[in-house]
TrEMBL record:
It comes from Cyprinus carpio carpio. Residues 221-259 are annotated as: Disordered. Residues 223-238 have a biased composition (Basic residues). This is Uncharacterized protein.
DNA sequence: AGTCGGGGAATGACAAGGTC
DNA sequence: GACCTTGTCATTCCCCGACT
């Protein structure tokens, strides 16, 4: 029988605990199970330990034999994202499959679920919510905590929509204080007005950051300041719309999409083009098509030559369907006489 | 302890489309 | 055409950590 084991466990920087296990765990999984039970953690996590071989720097724990005596362990939460394959998102990704090749974005959900924040933030909110339930004390939100909350919320919102509208911001702000009542702002009329404003600022700054990083989808609306090159003749998007210029899908580049385009041109010359091939290639070349329409503004004749399948009945029908599904958020407008890229 | 630089939240000017 | 609305972006302010 192994002797009992004493651990120092860093749940987060303000919560460091001494844990005693009756028996030394034989595997990492067994250690994870015991810690989950002892600490009452409601989320998935992995472990890091202070490795004496590296001056006590943190190292991922993959082999239980690596653990020194009386080790210091750190809990590292395994975050799930809205794009992970939960049952709900699976439904969304199937429903929006038509668009999967031109955006990682899913439709704005019926009810916005406040995402899980980093482990330390969740812990602090849980404590503050308990405090709130005891004596109605609201949490005094530090700048750092606010940053963590806004960062995660903006990231989640962006996964649904790059330009959320007023209702979206209101919904998220309201959902936030509903899930975490300790975050209610007693001075504001609805309790979340401050969060609403902060979210709007945050989202704007988030887009700026992405724009600087070269994200096409939001860059297309940039460059409107004095002394800058105007964005050619791309019309400013209407309210709640964006000039939707998606990044190329993972694993695709201009060359690979161009070869798919040529494949379709050849196939369209046949008496009976292969519908499945056309549908598949049209779907996966969306980003290239969009880029062409926006950047070169081709005439109708050129577009018909390059994308003959675009004007087939099935493609028009599928675009109408997807347009209805996506609401107006993805439209691009251009000058009279140019292709209206609602026909994408 | 003081200085410096980086990063983020917030502000306000500006541009451009929408509305009446 | 005046005013409103919305999004971008330069800028300011503040905080924090690194460095001296």
């Amino acid at each position: 029988m192994e002797a009992r084991t004493i651990l120092r466990v860093i749940v987060h920087e303000n919560d460091i605990r001494k844990i005693t296990l009756p028996v030394k765990p034989q595997t990492v999984d067994s250690l994870l199970e015991q810690l989950e039970e002892k600490l009452g953690l409601q989320y998935k996590f992995s472990l890091q330990f202070e490795d004496p071989d590296f001056n006590n720097s943190l190292v991922n724990l993959t082999d239980i034999a690596d653990l020194p005596d009386k080790p210091t362990l750190k809990i590292v939460s395994i975050m799930t994202t809205p794009t992970s394959s939960t049952a709900d998102t699976e439904i969304l990704s199937v429903a929006s499959d038509d668009h999967s090749s031109h955006s990682q974005r899913t439709a704005w959900p019926e009810t916005f679920e406040i995402p899980t924040f980093p482990v330390d933030v969740e812990y602090r909110l849980r404590q503050a919510n308990l405090q709130y339930m005891r004596d109605q004390t609201f949490l005094k939100v530090s700048a750092e905590l606010k940053h963590e909350i806004l960062e995660k919320l903006s990231e989640t919102m962006y996964s649904f929509r790059a330009y959320p509208d007023k209702e979206n911001f209101e919904e998220v702000a309201a959902a936030l204080i509903k899930k975490h009542p300790c975050l209610t702002q007693p001075g504001s009329s609805k309790g979340w007005n401050g969060w609403y404003n902060s979210l709007r600022w945050k989202m704007g700054n988030y887009r700026s950051k992405l724009r600087r990083a070269g994200c096409l989808e939001v860059s297309i609306n940039g460059g409107k300041r004095r002394g800058q090159q105007p964005q050619r003749n791309i019309k400013r998007p209407k309210r709640s719309e964006i000039n939707f210029l998606p990044n190329f899908p993972d694993g695709e580049d201009e060359t690979s999409m161009e070869s798919k385009r040529k494949e379709m041109v050849e196939d369209m010359k046949k008496r009976h083009p292969k519908a499945s091939l056309i549908a598949k290639n049209m779907n996966s070349t969306f980003a290239l098509r969009r880029k062409e329409l926006i950047e070169t503004e081709p005439g109708v004749k050129d577009t018909v030559e390059r994308w003959p399948a675009l004007f087939t009945e099935s493609q028009i029908f599928s675009r109408v369907q997807s347009h209805i599904w996506q609401k107006p958020a993805n439209r691009i407008l251009s000058r009279t006489g140019q292709i209206h890229s609602t026909v994408h």
